[in-house]
Each structure stands twice: as structure tokens, then as C-alpha cells.
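haha ok so turns out i had the wrong file open the whole time. this is the CORRECT one, sorry everyone. sequence first:
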Amino acid sequence: MSLVSTTSLRYFAEVVRAGSIRAASENLYVAASAISRQLAMLEDSLGAPLLERRQGRGKVKLTAAGEILMRYHKNIVKESGRLHSEIEALQGLKRGHVNFGMPESLTRDFMPQFFSGFSKRYPGISFSVKVSGSPTLAEMLLEDDLDACFTFGDIAFQDMSVVYSRLLPLYVLVPTGHPLEGSKSLRLSSCAEYGLSWLDSSLWARQQYDEMLAKAKIRPRIALETNSYELMRNVAAEGMCLTFTTAPLEDPFGRPRAGSYVPLKDPRARPQRLALSVHKGRSLPIPVAAFLSELTAALEAAEQLAEPHAEPRAPRGKAAK
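then structure:
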């Protein structure tokens, strides 16, 4: 079997991405006949068909051999990016790139400020940030589509290594002027008669919230259901309803733009676990390692602020306990 041509492989990947030879031709500014010839040469070289030939305008479909070749292409792209990152790292962190993932609840608090500060210190390091639910982020991490990610909840994969972990207590975001405003703490029963914003079933914490209220024998009055933590906080700030949430990492005793965070002191309310993880055994580029080192230090500093009366803690290890 002869070597795979880089040109043929590039054309093949674009056909798969675009969905057809015609669309790939338009994207690459290459004649469709030239792309077809390259695909034929590629199939002849590998000795197997790569695409199912379909009539009409439907998207191309990969054969089993095509699936293998596409994985091969993705690995080449990833390794090429890693090579560039490591060579750039030799320039003293002047250049580099970090692929990072996090749930939406961290997009307003803590991380924007951290990204900004890190970027000022290392202006040559850029970021690609994926915002999604924790299960999706964990899967992307294990596929090496992410260098590191935050997750909420008990996401347990044996190939994930936890760099930092912390239990975050639950609070009730109480709108300004609400009858519960000014409470020192609240129980689930205190919230039962008021409208709540609620997570939909696509998010991990929904199951935790459902179990929490079921044990308390409370049927919630759902005013709004969504997959957006940010929307939940915003409608509470506008006075529409109560919201169960965690407090901001960097200022757990601060006030939201309207309302207040009141601790949920109830035996059925379990804290949420925040974890920062990497793919176990993967050799991380120097820029990524520097990013994680500073992020972990910032998280530990924020944790100390959240526990002003706690004794100082020793730095956390890089492996899950």
C-alpha cells in the first residue's frame, strides 16, 4: 500500500465536512473533477471505498474504511497542533493555544476575569472555549478535543485526572423585594410556596434537584424551565422567581445585580462538586500546563476567600483523591 497523499487526505476531509464534492469544490476553490480524481486515487491507494455513492443531493456517508481514515485525519490535525504548541513554547510562552471547556454557569463569574489577567501576562497565548454541559465536556476531553475542562457533578471516568476539586454549597437567589429577602438561611420548605426557575432534563443537576425535592416531599411551582443557568439567575434578578444556584467563585458573599444569595440550609440539599480535569496520561503542551498551574492557584485563592475563618490549606495534588 502506497503512502496517503496529503492533498488527497485534505480534499477527502473537506468533502466529509462540507457534505458533498460540489460544496467542497466551492470551499476549496478546486474543480469538482479534480477532487473526484483525488478521492479515486485515495480509494485505489487504500484498496477500499471511502464514501457511499448516493443519488440526488443527500450528504455523503462514510464507509467503515472512511470512518477509520477520518479518525486518522483528526489525529494528524491534533498532533500537528500539539507540535506547533510545543515548539512555540520553547520561545518562552510567547505563543501557544489552549482548548478549554466549561459549563455556562462559569461564563459570567470568575473565568472572564481570569482569562483577561492571564492574557495580559501571556498575550501570545490564544484560547478556544467550548461552553456545554458537563457530560459533553467530559467526552470531548477524552477525545482530546479539549486540553482541560471544568465539570459539575459526579462525572466519573477512569481516564480523567482531576487537577482541582471543590464542593460548592447551594444557595437561593432571592429577588429584591421578595418576601424571603433578608433571610439568614432558608430550608426547602421555606421556598415551596413560591415560583422557581428550574433546570431542564438536559443538565446533570436536574436529577439532583428533583431528588432533593422528592425527599423533602415538595412539588415545586415551576415558573420557568430552561437549560441556561444564566437565564435562571437573570429572571430571579428581575423578580420573577427564586433560583437554586451556587454563589460566584471569586466573591461568594457579594450581591448579584439584584437580590441576594441566601444559604440553603437543608439536610436534603447536597453541594455540587466542581472539578478541573485533564485526560489522564496525556502529555500537555507547556502553554496548557502554565494555564492550568495559574488557574489552579486562582481557584485555591478564591476558596480561601470563601472560607475566611478556615485554616490555610496545603496545595492540592494533581491527582484525584
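The first helix runs from residue 6 to 18.
again sry for the mixup
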